[in-house]
Amino acid sequence: MPPESRDRATDPPAGTAAGSGLPPANPYARSYRRGPFTVVEASGEIDMATADFLAQHLVAATGDARPDVLVDLRGVAFFDCSGLRVLCRAESRVRERGGRLRVVSDHPHIHRLLRASGLLDRFPPLPEPP
């Protein structure tokens, strides 16, 4: 973790206590349980320099048997192929464990990126969490 990222770290949000098995919030992702789902909220710019911060949360969220994960990208200002790679890896882990991963996004940029990469059928974005 680069030293400057520690300067931006925030306190973990409610619902991400140490006993939950979820990692603490970082500047680009936070996780929490909401009903049957594990929600991973991404924020800021997800690119080559920051995708590992999101990956950290997705690895934890996809570790259970039959995980049901919502990846909320509504707080993302920029998302590139590094973020797509992280999503694809997480979705593969979820499928191996008999669960599901869904993306929540209302950003046209993310919809275009999914369409252009051929991943729109794999990650059809929900406009809001169920």
From TrEMBL:
- Superkingdom classification of source: Bacteria
Bias (Basic and acidic residues) occurs at 1-10
Entries under SUPFAM superfamilies matching the protein: SpoIIaa-like (SSF52091)
Its signal peptide is none
The STAS domain covers which part of the protein? 39-130
Q: Name one GO molecular function term.
A: anti-sigma factor antagonist activity
Disordered: annotated span: 1-29
Q: Which family does the entry's similarity section mention?
A: Belongs to the anti-sigma-factor antagonist family.
Protein name, per record: Anti-sigma factor antagonist
Q: Which organism is it from?
A: Streptomyces sp. R35
